[in-house]
Amino acid sequence: MRAGFNKVQDVLENYRSAVYEKDVERFLSAYDSDIHVYDCWENWESIGISQWKEMVDGWFNGLREEGVVLKIDFDDLVVEENTNLAFVHCTVTFAAHNESGEKLRQLTNRFTFCLRKENDSWAITHEHSSLPINMETGKGIFNLK
After folding, report:
1. Largest distance between two CA atoms of the chain
2. Sign of the CA dihedral running 119, 35, 109, 80
C-alpha cells in the first residue's frame, strides 16, 4: 500500500528525506506502479516500478558503499495542479557529504515530475531528468547556474 501524500510538496519532501536516508521502500512509495522514468544516468528509461526499483537499489547501494549521504535542494520550483493531475519542474541539486559533514561534490539536474492523485494521495507517474549538453565536448553540463 502506498503512503498517503496529501500535497505535492509531501512527495518532494519524501524524495528528499528518503534519498538522504537511503530508504528504497519509502522512496518508491511516492511512485505509481506504472511509473515511466527518463533518467540521465545509465538507463535510457525505466518502465514500471520493478525496473525503477532496480535502478534505485543500485543508486542507494553505491552511496552506502561510498559512505556518503546526499542532501537535496529543489530550486526554481514550479507546481501546476488541478484536482487529479500535477506538473512540477525544477532544478534538483544533489550534494554528496561524508560522515563528518564535509561536502565532497555536487551536481544539478533539471527535473520534470508528472503526478496523479488517486484516493486523495499524490503519486509520481512520470519523471524526467536531463542535463544540457556542451555541443563541443558532447558532455553534460552539471552546474549551469
Report:
1. 49
2. negative
pTM: 0.91
For the chain, how many structural domains are there in total?
Answer: 1
- By C-alpha distance, which of 106, 57, 119, 115 is closest to 86? 115
Domain that holds residue 43: 8-130
Q: Which residue has the cell 488517486?
A: 118
**Which three three-digit cell numbers place residue 93?**
541539486
CATH of the domain at 30: 3.10.450.50
* pLDDT tens digits along 81-134: 999 999 999 999 999 999 899 999 999 999 999 999 999 999 999 999 998 888
Give me the chain's average pLDDT, please: 92
